[in-house]
Amino acid sequence: MGVPAIAPSWKYAALLVLAVLAVFKLATFATAAFEPGEPLATVGCGSCHLAGQQVRAGNAELLRGTEEQLCIGCHQGALTASHPSGVQPSMEVPSAFPLDWKGDLTCSTCHQVHNARHGRLRSTKRGEPFCTACHASTFFDHMADGGGSVIISGHLAATLEPDQLGLDPFSIQCMGCHGDKSEDPRQRVSVGANRVARHGATNHPVGVAYPEGAADYQPVAELTADIELPQGMVSCVSCHRGYSSDHGAVSTPMRGSQLCFQCHLL
User: Fold this and answer.
1) What is the mean pLDDT of residues 35-61?
2) Residue 210 gets which letter from DSSP?
């Protein structure tokens, strides 16, 4: 005797349809819910919040992705060589700089996302006083440049126009201190017309496109997160940590040429 089929009720069918629609909506967000650079006022709550236009105190934290994923929809490159985001802070953070529901430091910890001036910083302080709102005053003492490079901004200059050599914005900023103006010969770097950066015994091209698809290079998708390729170009920040407490340190130890093997298949 066969087991009779049980017809699902209309309630179960409706729930199934809603679940499928929810999954589809979340999946399609990966293609971006708005155009980069679109004013916040025209984007709408539903571009970031699952509750759409019905956002209230109880559901505002339910977002369509992490803040980092949402913010780069408009601010592309904002996380390249920038203050870490989406991480748990190692120090106590003042209440004026709110963490998210997970206790993570995010974009909105420093920026007022819903301010009339979208992205405005949460403090009138700038430079070192802004940094030391969270960091100890001794935070910059051990840095080779006294913290000068990271005090400039929470984001290294991603908006500089390419120079006459076509260098990427980050390399241009690096050369501002490490070029001919550097008082310490050991820190001085020169970049010739062939875009080869010469520093000490090490020479390496910068401002050139990463050779994706070449047989003797790692595919971009397999590079570690520490290898930055701004605008798809080999940059100073491809090998060096520009925004770091150990400013200028290489992203991977040079011992045994480990850093070289991150990109090169030799």
Assistant:
1) 72
2) -
Domain boundaries, the chain: 19-128, 160-261
pLDDT at residue number 33: 39
- Please choose, from the candidates 227, 209, 224, the residue with its C-alpha nearest in 3D space to the C-alpha of residue 166: 209
What's the mean pLDDT in 112-135?
A: 85
Q: Dihedrals φ, ψ of 128, to 5°?
A: -60, -40
How large is the average pLDDT for residues 131-154?
78
Burial group, residue 58, by CB count within 10 angstroms (0-12, 13-18, 19+):
exposed
Whether the Cβ atoms of residue 189 and residue 174 lie closer than 8 Å to each other: yes
Q: Greater confidence, 91 or 23?
A: 91
One-character DSSP codes across 111-146: EETTSSSTTEESSS--SHHHHTTTS-TTTTTTSTTT
What is the pLDDT confidence band of residue 161, given thresholds at 50, 70 and 90? low
The rounded distance, in Å, linking the Cα atoms of 164 and 191 is 11
Tokens for 22, please give them. Answer: 């929810």
Q: Identify the three-state secondary structure at position 233.
A: strand
Spatial contact of 96 and 132, defined as CB atoms under 8 Å apart: no
Question: From CA 122, how far away is CA 33, in angstroms rounded?
Answer: 26
Q: Is 90 helix (H, G, I), strand (E, B) or coil?
A: coil
| Mean predicted confidence (pLDDT) in 212-225 | 90
CA 163 vs CA 16, 21, 78, 116, 171: distances in Å = 56, 48, 20, 34, 10
Residue with tokens 């977002």: 63
CA dist 128 and 141 (Å) reads 12
